[in-house]
Design brief:
The protein contains nine helices and nine strands. By secondary structure, the chain is an alpha+beta fold. The chain has a five-stranded mixed β-sheet, covered by helices on one side. A two-stranded antiparallel sheet has the order 1-2. Strands 3-4 form a two-stranded antiparallel ribbon.
Amino acid sequence: MYWLKQGTIAYSWTEMRHSVYKQFCPIAMASELLCTRWTMPLLRELIAGSTRFSDLRRGVPRMSPTLLSRRLKELQEAGVVERTAVRSEKGVFEYRMTESGEDLRTVVEAIGSWGQKWIDRKQSLRNLDPSFLMWDMRRKLRPTPLPSRRTVIQFLYPEQPLSRRHYWLVVEPTGGVDLCSRDPGFEVDLYVATDLRTMTAIWMGLTTLAKERAKIRFTGTRDAARKMQAWLGFNRSLTQHPFTV
């Protein structure tokens, strides 16, 4: 069994009772914990700021709740994550990175940078997922300047099944941003209709909004369209990809 020390506390790793690599090398020992299935994407979500189970689920939608619970427990036992109760909400917990967990930030960012540089990003277009795309857009949206009133942007992916076809980004004057997969009932300022592959390629930096303009239909005011492009960083160059932590 391996142990990870944090201060004077030693934590056991649930799945590490039987070593996989059987090497004392720190890289091999760290891999016993970090290279299990779904662990790195989960760390990405935690480092990006998701703290609640429901939000973590939205960032890894194809990870089963059972496996997510198991991985979180393993990271807790390893001293990478701590779970705390939300006092104002009975039965609700938040997961946050510990000091050792925060030390993984540069590791996760380095893996992301390596992937952007060396992995053929066009292969990612074979793994299209509207829920993850929209969640990533929601958490990376920077509403600057802030709107004077609530602004609602509805995205439509016509070729997707009905349950995965419509999404709403709701930006509040306070800077709060919410993502809805059901109609929130607010007046829509801008409709954006395109196929999922095109929007994903733009978001990944494989192409630009200007180049794909013929494939995208905007319905709404020019001001709302300009704000959307600025908030989501669609004015960035091809070398500035949004898929970072």
